[in-house]
Write a structure and sequence with these properties.
CATH architecture of one domain in chain B: 3-Layer(aba) Sandwich
Strand order of the largest sheet of chain B: 6-7-8-3-9-10
Order of helices and strands of chain B: EEEHEEHEHHHEHEHEEHH
Order of helices and strands of chain A: HHHHHHEHHHHHHHEHHH
Structural class of chain B: alpha/beta
Oligomer: heterodimer
Bound molecules: adenosine-5'-diphosphate, magnesium ion
Radius of gyration of chain B: 18 Å
Shape of chain A: globular
Helix content of chain A: over 70%
Strand order of the largest sheet of chain A: 1-2
Shape of chain B: globular
Number of helices of chain B: 9
Strand content of chain A: under 5%
Number of helices of chain A: 16
Chain lengths: 409, 253
C-alpha cells in the first residue's frame, strides 16, 4: 500500500474508514476540541427533562412552534457568533432589532411604502449602525463592549421616538410578510425534497473532495464513511420533516433561518474572509502581519451583526404582526448572545461555527417553551436560562484549558 | 547587486532612541547577519523593514528605487518577507491555514487541496518534521513552529528574507536544517538578513556581519576576515572602535 503525502510521518496513528473517523472525533473531544458535542448533549438532557415534566413538550405542534419562535432570535445569534469570533461583543442587538421592526412598521404601515422597500431600508439601517460601530472601534479604539452598551440605550430611545406617542403599530394580517412569519409552510413533498437534496449534496461534495484529495496524493475519507454520514443526515432530516409534518410542517421562516446558517457556514469556513475572521480572533497581531486588513474585518463583522439583528427584528415584528415599545426588549438581547455562546462560540475569540447559532437558539427556545408549558413564570425561565448559559461558559473555559494542556489551544 | 539599502534610519519610542542613523546594504545572494546585545535595536530594525513600524527618518532603497513601507502588505508586495522572533502564528488555525494566511488560493472558494499539497512541498523542502498539517499550530513544538514560519515566508516568492533569531528555539538537528536552508536561499539569489545571537551560526552561513550597539551601527565586517573575538568586542563595546570605524569606511582592517 502506498502512503499518502500527509500520512508519511511514522509517528502518526493510521486510522482508516469509518472506525477511524469515529476514533478521531473521540480523540479530539478528549483534547478539549469539543465542537458541538456539549450543546447536543445539553439539548438531549433538556428535552428529556422537559418531556418528563410535560408530555406535550415534544409533541409535533409544540416543536413546530419552537422552530418558528427560534428563527428571529437565531438570526440575531448568527450575527453575534461573527462578532464573538473576532473576540468582540455586541450588546445592542436587541435594541437594533427593535428599532428595525419599528422602522419597518412606520415605513410600511404609516408611510405606505412597498414592503420590500421598507425591509431593505430597515436592513440598511442595521448595516449603517454596524458600520458606525466599526468606525468607532477602529478609529478611537473604544472597547466594543462600551460602544454597543451605548448603542443599546441610544437605539432603544430611537425606537421609542420612531414609534411615536401611540407606541405600537400593527402590521396588516393579510400582508405577505406576516403570512411568511405565521402561516407559510413548506409543502410536504418539497420538505422531503430538501432533505434528499441536502443528503445528496453532502455526499457528492464529500465524494468529489475525496477524489480530488486522492488525485493529489493525500489521504481521504472512504466512500463508506461518506455514505454513512449522508445516510445519517437523510434519516435525521426525513424524521424531522415527517414528525413536524404531523401537524403544520416546516415553516418557510425556519427554512430561511437555516439557509442563512448555511450561507454563513460557507462564508466562515470556505472563504478568505472567513479565514481572516478566525485569524483576527486567534491572534490580531499575526493577522495584521499577514497583510490582513484587520480594520476591514472588524467593520465587516459589526456590519453583519447589526444587519442580522435588523433582519431578526423584522421577522419578530412580522411574527407578532406588530412593532411596539417592547419589541427587541426584555430577553431578546441576552437570549441571542446566550444562544451564540451555548452553541459553542468561544468568548475568547477564534472558535465557533455558524451551526452553533442554530443549536444554541434551539436550546434557549426549548427552555423558554418548556417552562411556559409548565405555566412557570418568567422568573424561573430567567434563572434556568442563566444557569445554562453559565454552564456553557464554564464548558468553554474548561475545554480551553484542556486544549492548552493537550496542545490544541 | 544591492537589493535593499538603508541610510540614516532612526526610530524612537517615547524617550528611547531604539535606532539612530542606521545604514545597511543587502545584495542578492548575500547573507547579512545582524548581531547585537539585547535591546540593541535588532527587532526594531526588522519591524521597520516589515512595515510594522514606520521609521522617524531615513531612506529605504529597494532595487534602486526609493520606497516607503507603510504596511506589512506593502512589504509583501515589494518582496520583503519576514519571520518574526515571536513567529506571529495563529494558534487556533492549523498549519495550512497559517501558511496561507492572507494569501489563500481561490479567495471565494478556498482550494484546500492545492494549499495542502503546496504546504507539504514547502515543508519537505525544509525537511520539516511535522507529522500533520491539519493540527492547530498550538499543538506544535517551538522548532516546528519556526519551520512553519519560515515556510510561510517563502510562499510569496520574496527577494529579501529577514529571519529574526531563527535558530534560537531549535535543537541541534533543526538548527543545521535551518542553516542549510539559509544557504539554499542564498543559492537561489535571495538577499537574506539573519539576526542571531549565536556566533557559530553567523560564522557558518553569513557573508557579512553588521553589529548594532545601543541602536547605532558599531561595525560592518566581512565574515571571512573577522574573528569571533572581534565581533564580540564590537557587540559589547570593549573595543577602541578603530576596527569598526575602518570597516565602516570600507577600508579592510
Ligand atoms: N513597541 C515598543 N515600544 C517602546 N519601546 C520599544 C518598542 N519596541 C522596542 N522598544 C525598545 O527599543 C529598544 C530596542 O529593542 P529591540 O529592537 O527589541 O532590541 P533587540 O531585538 O535588539 O533585543 C529597547 O530598548 C526596547 O525596549
Ligand atoms: Mg529582538
Amino acid at each position: 500500500m502506498t502512503v499518502t503525502t500527509d500520512r508519511q510521518d511514522e509517528r502518526l496513528h493510521h486510522r482508516a474508514g469509518l472506525s477511524g473517523a469515529v476514533t478521531d472525533v473521540v480523540e479530539r473531544a478528549r483534547g478539549g476540541d469539543l465542537g458541538v458535542i456539549p450543546v447536543v448533549v445539553g439539548l438531549v438532557v433538556i428535552w428529556t427533562v422537559l418531556q418528563v415534566l410535560n408530555p406535550i413538550f415534544l409533541s409535533s405542534a409544540n416543536l413546530v412552534n419552537l422552530t418558528l419562535e427560534s428563527a428571529a432570535v437565531g438570526i440575531i445569534a448568527l450575527g453575534v457568533v461573527c462578532v464573538l469570533l473576532v473576540g468582540q461583543i455586541d450588546l445592542s442587538v436587541g435594541s437594533v432589532s427593535g428599532l428595525s421592526g419599528a422602522v419597518l412598521a412606520v415605513l410600511f404601515v404609516s408611510e405606505g411604502l412597498p414592503v420590500w422597500l421598507a425591509i431593505a431600508a430597515s436592513v440598511l439601517l442595521g448595516a449603517v449602525i454596524g458600520w458606525l460601530y466599526g468606525q468607532l472601534f477602529n478609529r478611537f479604539g473604544v472597547p466594543s463592549f462600551v460602544i454597543t452598551l451605548a448603542g443599546l440605550l441610544g437605539f432603544l430611545g430611537l425606537q421609542l421616538y420612531v414609534l411615536g406617542a401611540k407606541g405600537s403599530i400593527n402590521l396588516p394580517f393579510d400582508s405577505g410578510l406576516v403570512n411568511f412569519a405565521q402561516l407559510d409552510f413548506v409543502p410536504a413533498w418539497l420538505s422531503y425534497t430538501f432533505a434528499v437534496v441536502a443528503a445528496v449534496w453532502l455526499f457528492a461534495g464529500g465524494f468529489l473532495h475525496a477524489r480530488q484529495r486522492r488525485r493529489a496524493g493525500l489521504s481521504a475519507r472512504s466512500v463508506t464513511a461518506l455514505a454513512v454520514r449522508s445516510a445519517a443526515l437523510l434519516a435525521v432530516l426525513a424524521f424531522v420533516v415527517w414528525y413536524l409534518g404531523q401537524t403544520r410542517g416546516v415553516g418557510w421562516m425556519f427554512v430561511f433561518f437555516v439557509g442563512l446558517v448555511l450561507i454563513m457556514h460557507y462564508l466562515l469556513s470556505r472563504t478568505k474572509w472567513g479565514r481572516a475572521v478566525y485569524a483576527v480572533g486567534g491572534n490580531v497581531e499575526a493577522a495584521r502581519r499577514a497583510g490582513i486588513n484587520v480594520r476591514a474585518v472588524y467593520t465587516s463583522v459589526f456590519v453583519l451583526c447589526s444587519a442580522f439583528a435588523a433582519v431578526g427584528g423584522i421577522l419578530a415584528a412580522a411574527r407578532l404582526a406588530a412593532a411596539n415599545q417592547s419589541s427587541g426588549g426584555g430577553d431578546v438581547n441576552l437570549n441571542a448572545i446566550a444562544a451564540a455562546v451555548i452553541g459553542g462560540t468561544s468568548l475568547f475569540g477564534g472558535r465557533g461555527t455558524a451551526f452553533g447559532a442554530l443549536l444554541g437558539v434551539i436550546v434557549i427556545q426549548s427552555i423558554s417553551s418548556g417552562l411556559t408549558l409548565l405555566n412557570l413564570d418568567s422568573s424561573i425561565r430567567f434563572v434556568v436560562t442563566g444557569v445554562v448559559l453559565l454552564l456553557a461558559v464554564v464548558v468553554d473555559s474548561v475545554s480551553r484549558r484542556s486544549r492548552t494542556s493537550h496542545g490544541r489551544a | 547587486m544591492t537589493v535593499l539599502s538603508l541610510r540614516g534610519i532612526s526610530k524612537t519610542f517615547g524617550a528611547v532612541a531604539a535606532l539612530t542613523d542606521i545604514r545597511l546594504d543587502v545584495a542578492a545572494g548575500e547573507v547579512v547577519a545582524i548581531v547585537g546585545d539585547n535591546g540593541a535595536g535588532k527587532s526594531t530594525l526588522v519591524k521597520i523593514l516589515a512595515g510594522v513600524h514606520a521609521p522617524d527618518s531615513g531612506r529605504i532603497t529597494f532595487e534602486g528605487r526609493d520606497v516607503a513601507i507603510p504596511t506589512p502588505a506593502a512589504a509583501h508586495k515589494l518582496g520583503i518577507a519576514t519571520v518574526f522572533q515571536d513567529l506571529a502564528l495563529c494558534e487556533n488555525l492549523n498549519v495550512i491555514q497559517n501558511l496561507f494566511l492572507g494569501q489563500e488560493i481561490r479567495p471565494l472558494r478556498l482550494d484546500d487541496v492545492a494549499m495542502e499539497t503546496r504546504s507539504w512541498e514547502l515543508l519537505r523542502q525544509l525537511s520539516a518534521k511535522i507529522p500533520s498539517v491539519r493540527v492547530p499550530v498550538a499543538a506544535l513544538s517551538g522548532g516546528q513552529r519556526q519551520t512553519v514560519a519560515i515556510a510561510r515566508s517563502l510562499l510569496g516568492d520574496p527577494k529579501v528574507i529577514i529571519l529574526d533569531e531563527p535558530t534560537a528555539a531549535l535543537g541541534v538537528a533543526q538548527t543545521a536544517e535551518v542553516l542549510n536552508l539559509v544557504e539554499r536561499l542564498r543559492e537561489n539569489g535571495l538577499g537574506v538578513i539573519m539576526i542571531s545571537h549565536n556566533m557559530a551560526d553567523v560564522k557558518a552561513v553569513a557573508d557579512t556581519v553588521v553589529v548594532l550597539r545601543l541602536g547605532r551601527n558599531n561595525g560592518v565586517f566581512d565574515v571571512a576576515e573577522v574573528s569571533t573575538e572581534d565581533i564580540i568586542a564590537a557587540i559589547t563595546g570593549a573595543t577602541d572602535n578603530a576596527v569598526s570605524r575602518r570597516a565602516d569606511k570600507g577600508v579592510p582592517s
